[in-house]
Design goal:
The protein is an alpha+beta fold. Helix content is about 25%, strand content about 30%. The strands form 3 sheets. Strands 5-6-7-10-9-8 form a 6-stranded antiparallel sheet. Strands 4-3-11 form a 3-stranded mixed sheet, with no helix packed on it. The chain has a two-stranded antiparallel sheet with strand order 1-2. Strand 9 and strand 10 form a beta hairpin. Helix 2 crosses helix 4.
């Protein structure tokens, strides 16, 4: 690949090395890294590397590379034409940082977002969640874990924690589409505090998002308050930094412009 392209991919934080000690199959790792390359690609007119180049780059069989490329082309991320090479079609998936009620519409992507509920049930509040919600440690809470994915790769894992008295009537179906409409039946939601930071993938996150443990991630967490200023929801999401970016919309007034 040309130096300019290599530099752009490196600046985007894409690690192209395969982890041969990882339980993730090499095919999955190759597909994941190809998708990360696509998302960091600097110029749609620049040809994507050939099968031979990628085979040498990753040190895997040509069959493995060809299968991954074909799947990405079928999903619309690459355009392959005999005699003209392969070109990139995709950009990073963008998540609007908001607490809107329609979870799927928070994402901007040409690939429909799939949302799966990994777990839904009562747990004892972990210490950090208890502190955020200003309750005693080990207080029973409704805990929700979700996985959001594009057609070819998981994007984000979410955790949501709600006190049981406010979680009445919240269903597993609500957890998949967004819980705030259901919570509004039990409380008047007034405001939210949100934080965004970088982090690295834990073993659990790495397994769910199909990346090596320690991979760079983007994280945002929030606490939602009701009209009495009681914290009623704690949430945290961890997203693949190589595939996503966060977008924030701000309304400016004379008081907010510095």
């Amino acid at each position: 690949m040309k130096k300019r392209v290599v530099d752009s991919i490196a600046l985007a934080g894409v690690d192209l090395k395969l982890d041969r000690r990882s339980p993730l199959p090499l095919y999955v790792q190759v597909r994941s890294r190809l998708l990360a390359m696509i998302m960091a690609w600097p110029d749609e007119h620049e040809q994507f590397p050939t099968e031979a180049t990628l085979t040498e780059m990753f040190g895997v069989s040509r069959v493995t590379v060809r299968g991954a490329l074909a799947e990405l082309a079928e999903s619309g991320y690459l355009h392959r034409q005999r005699g003209a090479g392969t070109r990139v079609r995709a950009h990073k998936v963008e998540e609007k940082l908001s607490l809107g009620r329609n979870l799927a519409k928070k994402w901007i992507s040409g690939d429909p977002m799939k949302i799966a509920v990994v777990s839904f049930g009562t747990v004892e509040a972990p210490a950090n969640v208890a502190a955020a919600l200003k309750i005693a440690a080990k207080t029973p809470l409704l805990a929700i874990k979700r996985l959001r994915a594009m057609k070819v790769a998981p994007i984000s894992v979410d955790w949501r924690y709600v006190p049981l008295d406010l979680a009445k009537g919240v269903t597993r179906a609500d957890a998949r589409t967004g819980i705030f409409a259901a919570l509004a039946r039990n409380a008047t939601l007034a405001r939210a505090d949100m934080e965004v930071e970088g982090c690295t993938a834990t073993s659990e996150e790495a397994e769910l998002l199909q990346v090596p443990e320690g991979t760079a991630m983007l994280s945002h967490s929030f606490v939602v308050y009701d009209k009495a200023d009681r914290p009623v929801v704690f949430g945290r999401s961890v997203a693949r930094a190589d595939l996503t970016r966060y977008a924030v919309k701000m309304d400016l007034t004379p008081e907010t412009v510095g």
